[in-house]
Protein backbone atom coordinates (compact mmCIF):
# COMPACT_ATOMS: atom_id res chain seq x y z
CA UNK A 1 0.00 0.00 0.00
CA UNK A 2 1.24 3.44 -0.83
CA UNK A 3 2.14 5.59 2.04
CA UNK A 4 0.11 8.81 2.14
CA UNK A 5 3.27 10.62 2.84
CA UNK A 6 4.43 9.73 -0.62
CA UNK A 7 1.62 11.91 -2.05
CA UNK A 8 2.99 15.02 -0.44
CA UNK A 9 4.22 17.29 -3.29
CA UNK A 10 7.72 18.38 -3.30
CA UNK A 11 8.59 22.01 -2.94
CA UNK A 12 7.78 23.97 -6.13
CA UNK A 13 5.26 21.43 -7.45
CA UNK A 14 1.52 22.40 -7.67
CA UNK A 15 -0.72 20.73 -5.17
CA UNK A 16 -3.45 18.56 -6.73
CA UNK A 17 -6.63 18.40 -4.72
CA UNK A 18 -8.90 15.41 -4.85
CA UNK A 19 -8.76 12.30 -6.90
CA UNK A 20 -7.31 12.23 -10.39
CA UNK A 21 -10.70 11.21 -11.68
CA UNK A 22 -12.01 14.63 -10.71
CA UNK A 23 -9.53 16.43 -12.98
CA UNK A 24 -11.12 18.70 -15.59
CA UNK A 25 -11.41 17.48 -19.12
CA UNK A 26 -9.46 19.39 -21.85
CA UNK A 27 -12.70 20.86 -23.14
CA UNK A 28 -13.51 22.23 -19.71
CA UNK A 29 -10.06 23.71 -19.46
CA UNK A 30 -10.48 25.48 -22.78
CA UNK A 31 -13.79 26.98 -21.72
CA UNK A 32 -12.38 28.11 -18.44
CA UNK A 33 -9.43 29.97 -19.87
CA UNK A 34 -10.63 33.58 -20.16
CA UNK A 35 -13.29 35.15 -22.44
CA UNK A 36 -13.98 34.05 -25.99
CA UNK A 37 -11.87 35.69 -28.70
CA UNK A 38 -13.82 36.99 -31.68
CA UNK A 39 -12.19 36.13 -34.97
CA UNK A 40 -12.24 38.71 -37.77
CA UNK A 41 -14.77 37.96 -40.47
CA UNK A 42 -14.40 40.99 -42.77
CA UNK A 43 -11.54 41.87 -45.08
CA UNK A 44 -8.30 40.06 -45.78
CA UNK A 45 -6.14 38.89 -42.95
CA UNK A 46 -3.36 41.15 -41.84
CA UNK A 47 -0.42 40.58 -44.07
CA UNK A 48 -2.54 38.37 -46.34
CA UNK A 49 -3.07 38.72 -50.07
CA UNK A 50 -4.85 41.74 -51.50
CA UNK A 51 -8.36 41.64 -52.95
CA UNK A 52 -8.73 39.80 -56.24
CA UNK A 53 -11.48 42.16 -57.44
CA UNK A 54 -11.06 43.68 -60.86
CA UNK A 55 -10.90 47.51 -61.10
CA UNK A 56 -14.46 47.52 -62.49
CA UNK A 57 -15.81 45.40 -59.63
CA UNK A 58 -13.91 47.50 -57.10
CA UNK A 59 -15.42 50.66 -58.61
CA UNK A 60 -18.91 49.17 -58.33
CA UNK A 61 -18.20 48.23 -54.74
CA UNK A 62 -16.99 51.75 -53.97
CA UNK A 63 -20.09 53.25 -55.62
CA UNK A 64 -22.32 50.98 -53.56
CA UNK A 65 -20.47 52.00 -50.41
CA UNK A 66 -20.91 55.67 -51.26
CA UNK A 67 -24.59 55.05 -51.94
CA UNK A 68 -25.01 53.42 -48.52
CA UNK A 69 -23.19 56.34 -46.94
CA UNK A 70 -25.46 58.83 -48.69
CA UNK A 71 -28.52 56.93 -47.46
CA UNK A 72 -27.35 57.65 -43.94
CA UNK A 73 -27.01 61.38 -44.60
CA UNK A 74 -29.54 63.75 -43.18
CA UNK A 75 -31.72 65.85 -45.47
CA UNK A 76 -29.60 68.90 -44.75
CA UNK A 77 -26.46 67.01 -45.74
CA UNK A 78 -28.13 65.81 -48.93
CA UNK A 79 -29.11 69.36 -49.82
CA UNK A 80 -25.55 70.49 -49.22
CA UNK A 81 -24.16 67.72 -51.44
CA UNK A 82 -26.66 68.59 -54.18
CA UNK A 83 -25.72 72.26 -53.98
CA UNK A 84 -22.02 71.45 -54.19
CA UNK A 85 -22.61 69.26 -57.23
CA UNK A 86 -24.62 72.00 -58.91
CA UNK A 87 -21.83 74.50 -58.22
CA UNK A 88 -19.29 72.11 -59.70
CA UNK A 89 -21.34 71.56 -62.86
CA UNK A 90 -21.89 75.31 -63.19
CA UNK A 91 -18.15 75.94 -62.86
CA UNK A 92 -17.41 73.32 -65.51
CA UNK A 93 -19.93 74.90 -67.89
CA UNK A 94 -18.40 78.35 -67.33
CA UNK A 95 -14.95 76.94 -68.07
CA UNK A 96 -16.16 75.39 -71.34
CA UNK A 97 -17.81 78.66 -72.38
CA UNK A 98 -14.66 80.59 -71.49
CA UNK A 99 -12.56 78.32 -73.69
CA UNK A 100 -14.99 78.78 -76.57
CA UNK A 101 -14.85 82.56 -76.17
CA UNK A 102 -11.05 82.46 -76.16
CA UNK A 103 -11.03 80.41 -79.36
CA UNK A 104 -13.50 82.77 -81.05
CA UNK A 105 -11.50 85.81 -79.99
CA UNK A 106 -8.30 84.17 -81.23
CA UNK A 107 -9.84 83.50 -84.64
CA UNK A 108 -11.26 87.01 -84.82
CA UNK A 109 -7.91 88.57 -83.90
CA UNK A 110 -6.19 86.44 -86.52
CA UNK A 111 -8.61 87.66 -89.19
CA UNK A 112 -8.04 91.27 -88.15
CA UNK A 113 -4.26 90.91 -88.37
CA UNK A 114 -4.43 89.25 -91.79
CA UNK A 115 -6.82 91.92 -93.05
CA UNK A 116 -4.51 94.74 -91.93
CA UNK A 117 -1.48 93.13 -93.59
CA UNK A 118 -3.33 92.54 -96.86
CA UNK A 119 -4.77 96.07 -96.81
CA UNK A 120 -1.25 97.47 -96.48
CA UNK A 121 -0.17 95.52 -99.57
CA UNK A 122 -3.07 96.61 -101.78
CA UNK A 123 -1.13 99.55 -103.35
CA UNK A 124 1.50 97.08 -104.58
CA UNK A 125 -1.28 94.94 -106.03
CA UNK A 126 -2.64 98.03 -107.81
CA UNK A 127 0.78 98.58 -109.39
CA UNK A 128 0.80 94.99 -110.64
CA UNK A 129 -2.67 95.46 -112.13
CA UNK A 130 -1.65 98.65 -113.96
CA UNK A 131 1.57 97.05 -115.18
CA UNK A 132 -0.39 94.11 -116.57
CA UNK A 133 -2.81 96.51 -118.27
CA UNK A 134 0.12 98.20 -120.04
CA UNK A 135 1.67 94.89 -121.05
CA UNK A 136 4.73 95.29 -118.85
CA UNK A 137 4.29 91.83 -117.29
CA UNK A 138 3.63 89.88 -120.46
CA UNK A 139 6.93 88.01 -120.18
CA UNK A 140 10.19 87.92 -118.28
CA UNK A 141 11.00 87.46 -114.59
CA UNK A 142 8.53 90.13 -113.48
CA UNK A 143 5.68 88.00 -114.80
CA UNK A 144 6.79 85.11 -112.57
CA UNK A 145 7.07 87.42 -109.57
CA UNK A 146 3.62 88.86 -110.21
CA UNK A 147 2.13 85.37 -110.40
CA UNK A 148 3.69 84.43 -107.06
CA UNK A 149 2.41 87.60 -105.42
CA UNK A 150 -1.11 87.01 -106.69
CA UNK A 151 -0.89 83.38 -105.56
CA UNK A 152 -0.08 84.59 -102.05
CA UNK A 153 -3.16 86.82 -102.03
CA UNK A 154 -5.30 83.96 -103.32
CA UNK A 155 -4.31 81.83 -100.33
CA UNK A 156 -6.08 84.36 -98.12
CA UNK A 157 -9.14 84.27 -100.45
CA UNK A 158 -8.78 87.89 -101.51
CA UNK A 159 -11.54 88.79 -103.97
CA UNK A 160 -11.59 91.80 -106.31
CA UNK A 161 -14.87 93.73 -106.35
CA UNK A 162 -16.27 96.37 -108.71
CA UNK A 163 -17.44 95.48 -112.21
CA UNK A 164 -18.75 97.74 -114.96
CA UNK A 165 -22.52 97.46 -115.42
CA UNK A 166 -23.38 96.11 -111.97
CA UNK A 167 -25.86 97.88 -109.71
CA UNK A 168 -24.33 100.50 -107.48
CA UNK A 169 -23.99 99.28 -103.88
CA UNK A 170 -22.71 101.81 -101.34
CA UNK A 171 -21.46 98.91 -99.21
CA UNK A 172 -18.86 97.91 -101.80
CA UNK A 173 -18.70 100.92 -104.13
CA UNK A 174 -17.41 104.45 -103.62
CA UNK A 175 -18.95 106.86 -106.14
CA UNK A 176 -16.39 109.46 -107.18
CA UNK A 177 -18.55 110.93 -109.94
CA UNK A 178 -22.16 110.70 -111.10
CA UNK A 179 -22.95 110.66 -114.82
CA UNK A 180 -26.53 111.61 -115.78
CA UNK A 181 -27.45 109.06 -118.42
CA UNK A 182 -30.60 109.24 -120.59
CA UNK A 183 -32.60 106.05 -120.38
CA UNK A 184 -31.01 104.91 -117.12
CA UNK A 185 -33.59 103.68 -114.62
CA UNK A 186 -31.23 102.84 -111.77
CA UNK A 187 -27.79 103.72 -110.54
CA UNK A 188 -25.25 101.46 -112.20
CA UNK A 189 -21.46 101.34 -112.40
CA UNK A 190 -20.44 103.14 -115.59
CA UNK A 191 -16.69 102.74 -115.09
CA UNK A 192 -14.27 101.34 -112.48
CA UNK A 193 -11.55 103.83 -111.60
CA UNK A 194 -9.90 101.68 -108.94
CA UNK A 195 -10.96 98.12 -108.05
CA UNK A 196 -11.93 97.21 -104.54
CA UNK A 197 -11.09 94.11 -102.55
CA UNK A 198 -12.86 91.89 -100.09
CA UNK A 199 -11.35 89.34 -97.71
CA UNK A 200 -14.01 86.82 -96.81
CA UNK A 201 -16.99 88.94 -95.77
CA UNK A 202 -14.80 91.90 -94.81
CA UNK A 203 -14.52 94.74 -97.34
CA UNK A 204 -10.91 95.91 -97.24
CA UNK A 205 -11.41 98.67 -99.77
CA UNK A 206 -14.46 99.83 -101.66
CA UNK A 207 -14.21 100.07 -105.43
CA UNK A 208 -13.96 103.63 -106.73
CA UNK A 209 -16.44 103.94 -109.57
CA UNK A 210 -18.27 106.36 -111.85
CA UNK A 211 -22.00 105.93 -111.46
CA UNK A 212 -24.58 106.31 -114.21
CA UNK A 213 -27.74 107.91 -112.86
CA UNK A 214 -31.09 108.67 -114.50
CA UNK A 215 -30.98 111.97 -116.41
TrEMBL record:
Locations listed in the record: Cytoplasm
Signal peptide per UniProt: none
GO BP annotations, alphabetical order: protein folding
Amino acid composition bias (Acidic residues), ranges on this chain: 25-36
GO cellular component: cytoplasm
Keyword field contains Chaperone: yes
Keywords of the record: Chaperone, Cytoplasm, Stress response
Database matches in InterPro entries: GrpE (IPR000740), GrpE_CC (IPR013805), GrpE_head (IPR009012)
Chaperone recorded as keyword: yes
Gene Ontology molecular function: adenyl-nucleotide exchange factor activity; protein homodimerization activity; protein-folding chaperone binding; unfolded protein binding
Biased composition (Basic and acidic residues): 63-72
Pfam family, one: GrpE
Main location: cytoplasm
HAMAP family linked to this entry: GrpE (MF_01151)
Oligomer status and interactors: Homodimer.
Its job: Participates actively in the response to hyperosmotic and heat shock by preventing the aggregation of stress-denatured proteins, in association with DnaK and GrpE. It is the nucleotide exchange factor for DnaK and may function as a thermosensor. Unfolded proteins bind initially to DnaJ; upon interaction with the DnaJ-bound protein, DnaK hydrolyzes its bound ATP, resulting in the formation of a stable complex. GrpE releases ADP from DnaK; ATP binding to DnaK triggers the release of the substrate protein, thus completing the reaction cycle.
Protein family membership: Belongs to the GrpE family.
Designated name of the protein: Protein GrpE
Organism for this UniProt entry: Neobacillus citreus
Gene: grpE
Amino acid sequence: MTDPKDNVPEEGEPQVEGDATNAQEPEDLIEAEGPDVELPTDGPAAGGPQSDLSPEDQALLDDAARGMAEDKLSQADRDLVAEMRADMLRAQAELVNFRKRVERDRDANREVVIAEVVRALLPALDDLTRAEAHGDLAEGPMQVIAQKIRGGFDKFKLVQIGEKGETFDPNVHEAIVQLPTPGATAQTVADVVEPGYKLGERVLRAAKVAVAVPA
